[in-house]
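Forwarding these from the shared drive since the link keeps breaking.
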Amino acid sequence: MSVLSILAGMGRVAVFLSAMLCVCEALAQSWPARPIKVIVPLSAGGTGDTLARVVSEEMGRLLGQPFIVENRPGSGGSIGTEAVARAAPDGYILVSASPSHVINPALRAHSGYDPVKDFAPITVIANTHQVLLGHPSVPAHTVPELIAYLKKNPGRLNYGSAGSGSATHLNAELFKSMTGTFIVHIPYRGSTYARQDLVAGEVQFAVDGLLPTLPLIRAGKLKAYALCSSRRSLIAPEIPTLDEAGVKGYASDTWYGMMAPAGTPAAIVAALHAAAVKAIHTPAIRERLTAQGAELVGNTPEEFRRMIEKEQVQWTRVIKLSGAKVD
């Protein structure tokens, strides 16, 4: 191939890229022209739902179009997540992602999406905490007491989760595998339903978000044993981590972020990122969420992507070690 041919080819590529850039810029300039839908693949009332609604409302104000939050729970979050993966990448549909985003493909042979390839990361909204909870009727008051109690009663007690394959399911299974205990898994269609049954005493244990359960803990309606995360919460520093409480090496951090379908124009992703970061740094929003235990982040799309890739490796290993299965 001659030098002239190579240069001509390079010229055509440059023209194509320039044209695509113009299309993206034009699209971004006319976007958003209608409301933007945010799919929360979790039940209403949970941590992910709360964060998505508060931040989305402010993003809508900043971008001049309402953000409509729609809950599509089921299959540990995979139903709503797959819907976004298959949606048009036009900036009008987003997903509120959490560790379940990575867990499901590692746990299910046919989850319907790739956690990295099928999405355009926008930003991590916040890090939060999950907590191992018990009904007040459970006689154990500390983690060592709980482990001893469970070993004396293998298979006689139940724990509820947000669904098979959810982060609450996997965090509980990791606790079981690391402590040599056996508690029967009762999957629900979202954490809200599991929480309701835990408060009612229909199940004895659950792993749930600290944000929605802290009022119940402080009212004495639920018993908090320890946090699943690698560090204590700023809002409830009195609750130890499982590692501190005796389950050495246990660490499972919880995050919530926003993503678009892969192929969403870079200019739109950048606009969404800017709006999300500005929203979480709005004093009223920041005060409201930090008061509920959320530790706000606002990282870059590339930082978010690297985090997803790391989580994919981590959760694949955890699932293999724990032997967790979808019920």
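-- next protein --
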Amino acid sequence: MSVGLVVGIVLIAVVVVGGLAALFIWSMRIVQQGSVGVVKRLGEFRGVRQPGLHPLVPFVDRMAKVDMREFPMTGDQQQVITKDNVSLRVSATIFCQVIDVKAALFEIADFQLAVDQLSRTALRAVFGEMTLDQSLSERDTINTRMQDHMADAAMKWGVRLNRIEILDITPPTNVLQAMSEQKEAEQHKRAAILKSEGEQQSAINSAGGRKQAAILEAEGAKEAAILAAEAQMRVLELQAEGEKKARTLRGEGDAAALAAIDKVAVQPNTLAVMQLRALQEVATAPNAKVVVPYESAALVGGAQVLVDALKGAGGPAAPVTNGAAPPVAH
């Protein structure tokens, strides 16, 4: 065998092996995580391949990759008209996800474009049923209504609408100016109301304070009067108790003195002296009355007892007339 023939065979073998290797590599497909591969054989749907390495039949099979993750679709601002004929510019974001690969590829030509157009129609329909005030204040209601409008149609395309968010609502300039003036007027109104309520509350608090002060003052005066009366009553009680004790003590002293007198025999001389001294004190009193002893015989008898006592003592005796006592006059 000639050298040229060998070289030719080697070259042919190398070309064949290289072509087979290239063909094998070209027929292999890698599906990334989060996506699936849809295999079509000669244009016919053959199956869905999960993430990983998958071989295909060369020149016969084709694979289309579909992202199965949730993705947002943000459209540009749309011109809508509300129920009360106010023109608004609205933009929304739709979060959707492919759940049926076959329907997404074969039921609609471009499901993303279809969802975008459907969202525009839903925006106009929802805002056309609401007034300006509702459109500006009820975004959650708008999101729910839009999802209700789009859910059935999107589900036919194998697409699920997870949620819809309104990004921006822009009224016309004149409407914004009117809203600003209205807001300013409401703020002035609210400020006036708050001011009047504050003044009213202040007056109520002041009246309540004066009332409470008057009540406290009256209660203080009442308590002071009660305390004063109780103190006076206590003083009178103490005085009465003192007088009672004094009378008790005096009664006990008189009883004791009387008891002592009863126990001691009084001498006639002593009794006569006591009677004369009492008569002398009455006679020397500073008055213009003449005292005549009622019991003159007793006084004469006392004087006679005193004379007899002096005689017995050896002193001079004074004559005393029986039955007559000289009156003492001042």
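Residues 315-330 have pLDDT under 50 and may be disordered. The radius of gyration is 68 Å.

- D.
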